[in-house]
Amino acid sequence: VGDVLLYVDQGGHLGRGKVRERCQQRLLAVLNQVVEMDQTRAVLVLAHSQGTAICADVLAKRQWKNMVFVSMGSPIGSLYWRFLGPETVAAPAVPWLNFFRTGDYIAGGAGIRSAWAPPIDLKDRNLGAGRHSNYFEDPRVWETVGKLCSPRQKSESDFAMCIIPEGSCVDDTPDKI
Questions:
Q1: How far is CA 64 from CA 35, 39, 172, in A?
Q2: How many Å from the N-terminal Cα to the C-terminal Cα in the chain?
Q3: Under 8 Å CB-to-CB from 114, ≥6 apart: which residues?
Q4: pLDDT 10s digits, 16-67
């Protein structure tokens, strides 16, 4: 929840500076670099926990071509949209697949699609019982990602992959960003 507070503190009043702005700038720089390397390849953005909120905001800022967003253990539906309102994190403008577990307290034990979610291109996938950690170790996640990246699924283009670590830059100090 501390990461959420730092992220919604757009004025930097909690003493860590403008964390939201720094996180988004760093991710945008990475995505632009990946896209510029080879514009014929699609990009799969994979994020966990607070990194999903950062990705959703950045992916909503412009029209991205050939990009897919995969989130795991996301607080977007359970914390941001439900308690703080849909304006706190933007809905990404790309196809979105969200993995969640019923025992995941950060994801609220449910998917993102709900009464408080805006209309978006989103599919929720329940992985069953489990906790907030170890999504990256779940073979069902990688099986699905593999299918998304399969050339048979996406015409002749293959994917570049951009993995956003949990929390990404929220834990960085301002002088390191």
A1: 9, 11, 27
A2: 22
A3: 77, 81, 82
A4: 778 899 999 999 999 999 888 888 888 899 999 999 999 999 999 888 888 9
What is the rounded CA–CA span in Å between residue 42 and residue 117? 26
Amino acid at 128: G
- Write b or e for each residue in 14-49: b if 16 or more Cβ atoms lie within 10 A of its Cβ, otherwise e: eebbbbbebbbebbbeebeebbeeeeebbbbbbbbb
- For the 2-176 domain, the top CATH level (class) is alpha beta
Q: With contact defined as beta carbons under 8 Å apart, do 12 and 23 qualify?
A: no
Which has the higher per-residue pLDDT, 147 or 2? 147
Contact present, 162 and 45 (Cβ < 8 Å): yes
Distances (CA, A) of 173 to 4, 13, 177: 16, 15, 7
Name the strand (E) or helix (H) holding 32: helix 19-37
Rounded to whole angstroms, how far apart are CA atoms 47 and 68?
11
Q: Tell me the pLDDT tens digit for each residue of 150-176.
A: 765 444 445 555 555 455 454 443 333
Place of tokens 């720094």: 22
Angle subtended at Cα 154 by Cα 148 and Cα 157, rounded to the nearest 5 degrees: 110
